[in-house]
Write a structure and sequence with these properties.
alpha/beta; Helix Hairpins; GMP Synthetase, Chain A, domain 3; 2 domains; 4-stranded mixed sheet; 21% strand; globular
């Protein structure tokens, strides 16, 4: 009998979900996204400097938000190429705007996408379901040979999947199509920086070594 060294989509989803699930904590009111580390950094389309900046942004912003809200809010914060995404739940519109202003004042932040909902904090069961959905989305990106999973960051909140990354229009459309057909996905929000196919070709040969310098890309409008 021969064993194939390739995970099926279902197995990959379960493996990813299990890995992500291990980081889920019922008593943590604020979660940070965390930039890719280790080997994944070499395949990230951000510069190494941008990746380090994103880590710093997440840590500083998370600390300030925790000081401001404590356990009164459930806020997820993700930084990609200095663009900050806020998701989760806060008790009031005032708290939502306050969280945005706190994030905007963190050094190196160039913009904030505020997707916080004014409502009671989500349950542990909902967060576990979101973690499974994130795993399924990442597995679908891994399975598609036309996409590089390292080019995407995936965040799921109450069934809404947020896709971030530096991608071509072709990659953006394909990733959106895949995500929309995954069980448990209620809606897809795209927060992409669109690059050209020519720029992608320039980036690709450098993926095995140091992260290449990249030219600024125009942000894509969020498609819902």
């Amino acid at each position: 009998m021969t064993f194939r060294p390739i995970l099926s989509r279902g197995a990959a989803a379960l493996l990813l979900a299990a890995t992500l699930g291990a980081t889920l904590s019922a008593c943590a009111p604020l979660v940070i996204g965390g930039a890719a580390v280790g080997a994944m950094m070499a395949f990230d389309r951000r510069t190494s400097g941008a990746q380090i900046e994103d880590e710093g942004i997440e840590l500083r912003a998370a600390s300030r938000l925790r000081d401001a809200f404590g356990d009164r809010a459930h806020i997820n914060l993700t930084s990609y190429n200095r663009q900050v995404l806020l998701t989760g739940e806060v008790p009031s519109e005032q708290a939502k705007q306050q969280a945005e202003q706190i994030a905007l004042k963190v050094d190196n932040v160039k913009g904030v996408v505020n997707e916080l909902a004014v409502m009671p904090a989500s349950s542990l069961a909902q967060r576990s379901t979101d973690t499974l959905v994130t795993g399924k989305v990442k597995a679908s990106l891994v399975d598609d040979s036309s996409l590089s999973v390292a080019a995407f960051k995936v965040v799921t909140e109450r069934g809404v999947v947020y896709l971030m990354g530096r991608v071509t229009q072709r990659e953006a459309e394909r990733a959106t199509q895949l995500t929309r057909h995954i069980d448990g996905v209620q809606r897809v929000v795209r927060i992409f920086e669109i690059i050209s196919e020519e720029e992608l070709r320039r980036l690709t040969p450098s993926m095995g070594g140091a992260a290449p310098a990249v030219a600024p890309a125009r942000p894509a409008s969020a498609a819902r």
